[in-house]
Amino acid sequence: MYDAPSLENTVDQKSTKIAAKDVQVYYGDTHAIKDVSVDLLDKTVTAFIGPSGCGKSTFLRCLNRMNDTIDICRVEGDILLDNEDIYDPKVDPVQLRAKVGMVFQKPNPFPKSIYDNVAYGPRIHGLARSKAELDEIVEKSLRRGAIWDEVKDRLDAPGTGLSGGQQQRLCIARAVATEPEVLLMDEPCSALDPIATAQVEELIDELRSNFSVVIVTHSMQQAARVSQKTAFFHLGNLVEFGDTTQIFTNPIDPRTESYITGRIG
Amino acid sequence: MTDATTSLLTPDAHTKKRNAAETRFKMYGMAAIGVGLAMLLLLMGTILSNGTGAFQQTFITLKVELLEAKLDKKGTRNLEDLKKVTTFGYTPLIKNAFGQVVTETGIETKLKTKDQAKLLSKSAAADLRNYVLAKPDQIGKTVEFTFLASSRVDGYLKGRVSRASIENDKNINVAQLDFVDQLKEAGVLKKRFNINFILGADASDQRPEAAGIGVAMAGSFFMMLVVLALALPIGVAASIYLEEFAPKNWITDIIEVNISNLAAVPSIVFGILGLAVFINYMHLPQSAPLVGGLVLTLMTLPTIIISTRASLKSVPPSIRDAALGIGASKMQAVFHHVLPLAAPGILTGTIIGLAQALGETAPLLLIGMIGFIASNAPGGITEGLMSPNSAMPAQIYEWAKRADPAFYERAWGGIIILLVFLITMNTIAVILRRRFERRW
Known about the structure:
Order of helices and strands of chain A: EEEHEEHEHHHHEHEHEEHH
Shape of chain B: extended
Distance between the termini of chain B: 45 Å
Number of domains of chain B: 2
Number of helices of chain A: 10
Structural class of chain B: mainly alpha
CATH class of one domain in chain A: Alpha Beta
Order of helices and strands of chain B: HEHHHHHEHHEHHHHHHHHHHH
Largest sheet of chain B: 3 strands, antiparallel
Radius of gyration of chain A: 18 Å
Largest interface: A-B, 27 and 20 residues
Number of helices of chain B: 19
Shape of chain A: globular
Strand order of the largest sheet of chain A: 6-7-8-3-9-10
Oligomer: heterodimer
CATH superfamily of the largest domain in chain B: MetI-like
Radius of gyration of chain B: 31 Å
CATH class of the largest domain in chain B: Mainly Alpha
Strand content of chain B: 5-15%
Helix content of chain B: 55-70%
CATH superfamily of one domain in chain A: P-loop containing nucleotide triphosphate hydrolases
Number of strands of chain B: 3
Distance between the termini of chain A: 25 Å
Structural class of chain A: alpha/beta
CATH topology of the largest domain in chain B: MetI-like fold
Strand order of the largest sheet of chain B: 2-1-3
Number of strands of chain A: 10
């Protein structure tokens, strides 16, 4: 699968972080995801693209078992995180979600202070032993979220009072505060204006040095800008997966080509 | 468009018709609101005009000489001996006091002191006796004592009783009313604010002037205590489970439908349930606020559950996702994030549920909280919960059905007090909702 490495995106020497094999997802009687097998690499940005309703968000939510909260949703197949099956009955999804963080489509800060927003995760996971340590984690996370300079003087202000782009970066800071290994982003820029989008994209690129990032996006330009690997979903199938440059310049499957040239989707 | 002469400046027939229909609809709406407001004004006006009188009472102030020879022949001030003197022993003292007032003020009257003393409430002698038993050292002295006037005298001052209306009244005659006028002139008889109506206990049929709603208020208070202590935790716990944790299947569907049905069950049904279960089967005391509270809890639970579920539902799912997404457990997500956001709504629902329960009368009928006259305020929480009592709406009903028009006035007064409570509770609910309301 990886035999077409591009010059600028050399990823093939990195290890596999998440390995999905023959994943099927059913919503009641609807077969939403069909036979998806994909290897997501460590310290890499992987983009999921595809038309609406193609299952890319559903698949993303399988990776940290957020689909568990939907009663009628059923997942089959294997998803391995560091070679451990995350759907093993012994796995507590709560523990898994601390390792696989998530950022949502709409910025959803808690209606609490900026500080408490970021400190909440470390608090419930017991990551900080003292107030000073917690302060340190909050600052580090806000810096990683590229929002520290904007909010350092008003950490007590409510997170909901920030602008949309700031809120989303706060949510990213909140997600990285628990030191996850993988960061899932479900259309993180769809509610943001172009300037905020550019800031978040820049941030995603920086996050790559520490985390494995999976991003679902409707914008093909965005996928091309931020990701090294791209997966194209269509009608619940994983049509094509490969290096981003290859997908966008030399797609193998005709459906991929149709989509990126705007004929379907 | 086909008609080239159509101008935008002159509305066509169709538009005119539509506009006319809209205007008519607005008029209907305003008329409906007007009728509603007029009814409300009428209601409030009636309540206030009929009820404010109950807060005023006529008192007669007399200087009573507490003769030692009558009250304490041995001169020992021994309480046991003092108690042997019944109210009959005090009546002459009151008559003497009237005689003294007449001479002091120079009122000219042909009334005998016996008939003068009839202007006082029938409880006058008993009140005086209680005073002496509480302060035996006052015996031998002359004390100024303020007696309740009888309900007829009170009614005369309030315009309820007139010389024409007492033609067939055995309790009072024209000569006595003349005497009342003279006493009023002399400043002995006065109408003033009567705190006893708000804090006191109900009185027998013969003494409407002494009746108060205070003890019934305590009964209502203890019932609300039971309702709050039971309905809030049970209701909130049930709603959180149903809304956040319970699987969505036919069993929870049935539970949901039944909770909604329960909210529509007539309250008297809860009353007969309480009678059958709490009193006949569990042998809890009759007429006790504990039982009343349990019955009202059953009645309030659906209200609290429905409003709690609604406010839990109104918390956007993105907040739950956010919490779960950073590894909070379901319970942490609910208790750290969802519940605090739903709290104002839950509180509002609870207060409105309590207000409903506070005004409920029908179930109290069946568990015996109507018709019982508690003459003493409860001494403590246990007594307040277990000893028989009445409740505010029950007390109002009780007064309204008594024959004496003086009680009728008290029923209206009781309604004012009850309304003050309800309006206060609803206002608090509205303020809480306004204050903690969040916009997303």
